[in-house]
Amino acid sequence: MTGATASAAGTHGLVPAPAKGAQGKYLRGDGTWQTPPNTTYADMTGATASAAGTHGLVPAPAKGTQGKYLRGDGTWQQAIDSLAAVRANTQQGYVAGALALKEAAGMIMTDTLAAGATTLTFTNSAITDDSLIDIYTDNAEITPSAIAQSGNTLTLTFDVQEETVNVKVRVS
Length: 172
Fold this sequence. Notes:
The protein is an alpha+beta fold. The protein is 12% helix and 26% strand.
């Protein structure tokens, strides 16, 4: 074979024999045996809220972590086994959150999303750009599909519900 150049194609034929000790090299298109340019790679670094991660090798999982998944922050985390577990966690969180809502400091606003309605709007001076806002419904499976805040107004958009839904908003 003859190797290719920038201006001419190579020709087919027998491959040139590699020299003794060249077992780690590869045959380039120009017909020469070369050492790969970069065979050392670093682990990826995970993303944070303020910085993107970097590409690289996946960090090795530790022994006994075969059921975990790799998150975007570069850590191995336990996966939830089923949708039922997600529901159970959500419902437990709702119950705990509802109890905490009664005791927590902050402005609590309540309203009812009528059957067939899709939007609730809350206006209060406590709602600001740097407010912490918690939203609770009387059914843990019903959550807003969109949340918009502008000035002192919070608008919650829901999918159309067949029944009335009670909504509580805590602003702190």
